[in-house]
Write a structure and sequence with these properties.
Blueprint: E1 3-12, H1 17-27, E2 31-40, E3 43-52, H2 55-71, E4 75-81, H3 83-91, E5 97-104, H4 109-121, E6 125-131, E7 147-154, H5 160-174, E8 177-182, E9 192-195, H6 206-214, H7 217-228, H8 234-243, H9 251-259, H10 266-275, E10 279-287, H11 288-298, E11 302-306, E12 308-311, E13 314-319, H12 326-339, E14 347-351, H13 357-362, E15 365-369, H14 373-378, E16 381-383, H15 390-394
Parallel strand pairs: 9-10, 9-14, 10-11, 14-15, 15-16
Antiparallel strand pairs: 1-3, 1-4, 2-3, 5-7, 5-8, 6-7, 12-13
C-alpha cells in the first residue's frame, strides 16, 4: 500500500544539496506531490511531499534519505500524511488567494505579529512569506531604510471591508503601510501607470508656489488644503485660486520650476517601469508648463494638465477648458487604456488628493500616496511610509530584480 510522507530538511545551505536528496528519491521511484525551499541567512529549510509505492520501499527510501542527510550535515524529519488529509489539502487548491504587503522603514516582530494575527482572525491562512526588500545594514538611518514583507494568504475574508479597516488602523498605529489585494493574473501584468503631479511626483503644490510669488500665498494655500481634503469642489476651487493669480509675471515660472523637488523614489520608479515596458502618464490638476519639465526628466509618455493662460507676459487668472478635474482624470485613464489596448485591470493610478479618487477607483491598482485621511480611507491601497518606488513592491517586485 502506498505511503505519503512529508520530508523536512534543515541545516546550512550548500550547493548540490537538493540534487543529492532528489537523487535518492529518484532511485526509489518516488512521485513528488509538493515541494518548497527557502534559505534565510544561509540556513536551508527544504520540504518535499512524496508518494512512495509501498511500505517496504518506503522504509528503504527513508533510510537512504536519513543517511544522505547525515552525510550532508542536515537535520531531517519525516511526517506521515494520511490519504484523507492529502485529499483535503488538494481540495483547498481552488480557494481564493490574496497578497498582504507590509511596507515599513524597518521591519519589527511587532509589525509581523499584528499583520499575521489579523489574517488569522479573518480566517486567512498564510502559505508563503517573502522579503521583497534588499538586505539592510545594521547602521542604516531610520528614515532611509526600506523594508517590505509579502504574505501570500489563502481564503476569503467574511468581511473584506472590516479587514481593510483593521489593517488601516494598525498601519496608522505602527506607522507602516499594509496593502491587501487579490492575487490575480493582472497583478504582475499591468502595463500603464498614471500619476497625479503636485504632492505626488513633486513635493509641492505648484499653484501654492505661484500664489506666494503673487503675494496671495496664505489665501490660496488654505483653499488648496480644503480642496485636496475633499472639502471643496476641485473645479470651483481651482477657478477661485487661479483668479487670485491674475497679473503674475511669467518670469517667475522658470525659478519656481527649477526649485521643485522630485518625491523620494520617483526616479527609481520610472526607470524600472520603463525597463519593464510600462507606458506612463501625468494626469494633473496642476499646470502643463511644469508637467512638461517632469516629462523630460523622467521620460514620461503622456502629459495631461491645465494650461496657464498668459497675455502680454502676465497670467490672466482665467481657466482654460477643459479643466483636468476628478472626472477628467478618470476619463483620461479610460482613454489611455483603450489607446494602449489594455483593460483597466492592467492599469495603475497614483495620487494624493480627493480629485484623484475616481481614477484610483477604476484602476486595477489604485494607490493613495502620502494622502489626506479621507483619501487613504477611500482608496483600496495607500503608501505613506516609503517613497514612490514602494509602488513596485505592490507589484511583487523585489529589490534584486531592479537595476539599482
Amino acid at each position: 500500500m502506498r505511503e505519503i510522507v512529508l520530508i523536512n530538511i534543515t541545516g546550512s545551505d550548500r550547493p548540490g544539496l537538493t540534487a543529492a536528496i532528489t537523487g535518492v528519491l529518484a532511485q526509489g521511484g518516488v512521485n513528488v506531490l509538493d515541494i518548497g525551499q527557502a534559505v534565510i541567512h544561509d540556513t536551508l529549510s527544504f520540504g518535499i511531499l512524496v508518494e512512495i509505492p509501498n511500505a517496504e520501499q518506503s522504509k528503504s527510501v527513508l533510510k537512504d534519505i536519513l543517511f544522505a542527510a547525515h552525510e550532508l550535515d542536515q537535520q531531517v524529519r519525516f511526517t506521515p500524511v494520511s490519504e484523507a488529509d492529502y485529499q483535503y489539502w488538494v481540495a483547498g487548491q481552488g480557494k481564493q488567494r490574496h497578497i498582504v504587503t507590509l511596507l515599513t522603514r524597518k521591519v519589527t516582530a511587532e509589525q509581523l505579529q499584528r499583520v499575521s494575527s489579523i489574517t488569522a482572525e479573518y480566517g486567512l491562512n498564510i502559505d508563503h512569506i517573502d522579503r521583497l526588500s534588499g538586505r539592510m545594514p545594521l547602521d542604516m538611518a531610520e528614515d532611509k531604510g526600506k523594508g517590505c514583507i509579502e504574505f501570500s494568504v489563502r481564503g476569503e475574508p467574511a468581511d473584506p471591508q472590516a479587514l481593510r479597516a483593521e489593517f488601516l488602523s494598525v498601519a496608522q498605529e505602527l506607522n507602516v503601510d499594509i496593502a491587501f489585494q487579490e492575487d490575480s493574473l493582472f497583478r504582475r501584468n499591468r502595463r500603464l501607470a498614471v500619476f497625479d503631479m503636485d504632492s505626488t511626483l513633486i513635493e509641492a503644490e505648484v499653484i501654492d508656489e505661484l500664489a506666494k510669488a503673487a503675494g496671495v500665498g496664505d489665501k490660496v494655500s488654505a483653499i488648496t488644503e480644503r480642496a485636496m481634503a475633499g472639502e471643496l469642489d476641485f473645479r470651483a476651487s481651482f477657478k477661485e485660486r487661479l483668479a487670485l493669480l491674475q497679473g503674475l509675471d511669467i518670469s517667475v515660472l522658470d525659478s519656481i520650476g527649477a526649485s521643485l523637488r522630485l518625491t523620494e523614489g520617483a526616479e527609481i520608479l520610472f526607470a524600472e517601469l520603463k525597463r519593464l515596458g510600462y507606458k506612463t502618464a501625468i494626469l494633473s490638476g496642476g499646470f502643463t508648463y511644469f508637467a512638461r519639465q517632469l516629462q523630460a526628466k523622467l521620460g514620461i509618455d503622456y502629459v495631461f494638465a491645465n494650461e496657464l493662460e498668459v497675455v502680454d507676459g502676465k497670467v490672466t487668472g482665467v481657466a482654460v477648458e477643459p479643466i483636468v478635474d476628478a472626472q477628467r482624470k478618470a476619463d483620461l485613464l479610460r482613454e489611455l487604456a483603450a489607446k494602449e489596448g489594455l483593460s483597466l485591470e492592467q492599469t495603475i493610478a497614483v495620487g494624493d488628493g480627493a480629485n484623484d479618487l475616481p481614477m484610483l477607483a477604476i484602476a486595477g491598482l489604485g494607490v493613495a500616496f502620502r494622502a489626506k485621511p479621507l483619501v487613504k480611507q477611500s482608496a483600496r491601497q495607500a503608501i505613506s511610509t516609503l517613497g514612490l518606488d514602494g509602488v513596485l513592491y505592490l507589484l511583487g517586485f523585489r529589490d534584486r530584480d531592479g537595476q539599482r
